[in-house]
Write a structure and sequence with these properties.
76% helix
């Protein structure tokens, strides 16, 4: 049974990781520090995107899909989930190494855009995976 449902199980684990605890229960008021934009909306968006992927995988769990495309899709989804979930930790870690706010925002921008690009590439392969194995 695990062999059939490993795709669904892996994305459910990813969904659990992406649950936006802080974004749903904390009201943030914008303050004087507006150099680094809040990414709480990204947490909620990623949660709903992964939820849609889990629903699609639950609908197609009986269809045989290419293992390599699935692994590539899963690996491409991981960076955005980790960035959306742990962005405050990344900000704290980068701020320890630099005192220049523009350099800090530049590094965080590189991380954000790279993870979003990988996620979009993964979704393209997910669409290819779905179109390749039509019933």
């Amino acid at each position: 049974m695990l062999k059939k449902n490993y795709k669904l199980l892996l994305f459910v684990i990813l969904l659990i990781i992406s649950i936006p605890f802080e974004s749903l229960f904390v009201i943030q008021n914008p303050g004087w520090n507006t150099i680094i934009p809040a990414t709480d909306f990204l947490e909620i968006l990623v949660f709903f995107l992964i939820l849609i992927i889990v629903i699609i995988y639950s609908l197609i769990k009986n269809r045989i899909t290419a293992f390599k495309l699935f692994v590539f899709h899963f690996i491409c989804c991981i960076p955005l989930v980790l960035y959306a979930r742990f962005n405050h930790l990344l900000r704290h870690l980068y701020s320890n190494y630099t005192n220049d706010p523009t350099e800090l925002s530049h590094y965080l921008g590189i991380v954000a855009y790279t993870s979003i690009l990988l996620f979009l590439i993964g979704q393209i392969f997910f669409i290819l995976l779905l179109k390749r194995r039509k019933p």
